[in-house]
Design a protein that fits this description.
six-stranded mixed β-sheet, Molybdopterin biosynthesis moea protein, domain 2, binds adenosine monophosphate, Molybdopterin biosynthesis moeA protein, domain 3, alpha/beta, Molybdenum Cofactor Biosythetic Enzyme, Chain A, binds magnesium ion, 4 domains, 18% helix
């Protein structure tokens, strides 16, 4: 049995950044930029009017003659003399001879005569070329998370593909004779299978929308074959259940038969003690205990940071926070406890239903409190560390 820190360190040692791939911008949501991006063009690429109005040479004159019009998208430069103005619209190219745009609300127009009601300052309402970025500027750094704004910004610079870190292909193997699919009638002795959907949703949040899923009964041959099949196509395999010491727990043996090498088995924690982690070349396998709360706790604590590292998140290690404890916690187990809790305004409140078989409190918590193995009691008002699940 190893410590939580040791387990995290060993997983980290076996986890490397994903390789660089170029993908279409439309598919890049949530991916991490794998290179610094330099602006291929200036933005805006030309002097642009920021308003609907008239472009002119600034003067104290109260009347100008309108000599033309520039719409957005027109390439031509309109020549302009002193005392002349051109009608212009937002986003249109400002004539080289103009230095100011007056908004139409501050003018009165009679045929070709433009009366100036209120002259703006010189250079008003013109976006200079390269105001936002100049060609060659470093505009986004490697490691940037590609959200909608970053993707839009890159599109505005003309990119249609982007270099990102390749996320791992993930497989899930669910084991258990007692498991029935939701939507089907439940027979005596059965329970509904919930770990696969929980893990799929958690993976989705972690930036892995697609997974390969296999289900097997508690049977060595079936488990060996399913592990083999999933490892052919996946970089990372999550196995649910069958990793404890029962007579019908075949996962460890099935992993051995597939030459997945054990890095560790069992962590001094509650829930989730029988977590198994191993590798087959660069492929990684997490065999998660079947109890739903154990499985999800192990996912958050161990799988999540590994996925973040592979996907290129620079700050992939989970940052623990601290809050003030409201109600006392006892830990007679000599293990690290991960307790479902709510934290608000810096105050932590442990929830009921902490058993590893229960998701009831997990469903409404926003934090996992971390109780150190050697801490037998934490009293109200004391500081407690926690993982903020809503800010992972
Ligand atoms: P195991 O780790 O296979 O010994 O399973 C531990 C407990 O978790 C047992 O009570 C199982 O019935 C339950 N369990 C295992 N797999 C799942 C699953 N996919 N969904 C819900 N409960 C499960
Ligand atoms: Mg089982």
């Amino acid at each position: 049995m190893i410590t939580v820190e040791d387990a995290l360190r060993r997983i980290d040692e076996h986890t490397a950044l994903g390789s660089k791939i170029e993908i279409s911008l439309a598919e890049a949501y949530g991916y991490i930029l794998a290179e610094n991006v330099l602006a291929p063009i200036s933005m805006p690429p030309f002097r642009q009017s920021s308003m609907d109005g008239y472009a002119l040479q600034w003067s104290e004159n109260k009347a100008y003659t309108v000599v033309g019009e520039v719409q957005a998208g027109i390439a031509r430069n309109s020549a302009l003399q002193r005392g002349e103005a051109v009608r212009i619209f937002t986003g249109a190219r400002v004539p080289d001879d103009a230095d100011t745009v007056i908004i139409q609300e501050h003018t009165t127009r009679e045929a070709a005569v433009l009366n100036i009601d209120k002259m703006p300052p010189l250079k008003a309402n013109i976006r200079p070329k390269g105001e936002q970025v100049q060609t060659g500027d470093l505009v986004l750094e490697e490691g940037t998370v590609l959200n909608e704004a970053a993707i839009g910004f890159l599109a505005g610079l003309g990119f249609h593909t982007v270099p990102v870190f390749e996320p791992p292909k993930v497989g899930i193997l669910v084991t258990g004779n007692e498991l029935q699919q939701p939507g089907q009638p439940l027979r005596e002795g059965q329970i509904y299978e919930s770990n696969s959907i929980t893990l799929q949703m958690a993976l989705k949040c972690a930036g892995i929308p697609e997974v390969s899923l296999e289900r097997v009964g508690d049977d060595l041959g079936e488990t060996v074959n399913a592990v083999k099949k999933l490892l052919q196509n996946c970089d990372l395999l999550l196995i649910s259940g069958g990793i404890s010491v029962g007579d019908y727990d075949f996962v460890q043996e099935a992993l051995e038969k597939n030459e997945v090498h054990e890095v560790f088995y069992k962590i001094n924690q509650k829930p989730g003690k029988p977590l198994w982690f191993g590798t087959q070349g660069k492929k990684k396998v997490f065999a998660l205990p079947g109890n739903p709360a154990s499985s999800l706790t192990c996912f958050y604590v161990y799988v999540w940071p590994a996925l973040r590292k592979i996907r290129g998140v620079k700050t992939y290690k989970t940052k623990e926070k601290t809050a003030k404890l409201e109600t006392p916690i006892k830990n007679p187990f000599g293990k690290v406890l991960f307790l479902k809790a709510t934290v608000s305004d810096g105050e932590a409140r442990q929830l009921g239903a902490q058993a590893s078989s229960m998701l009831k409190s997990f469903a409404i918590c926003n934090a996992l409190l971390i109780v150190p193995a050697d801490k037998e009691v934490i009293n109200p008002g004391e500081e407690i560390r926690y993982i903020a699940l809503d800010q992972l």
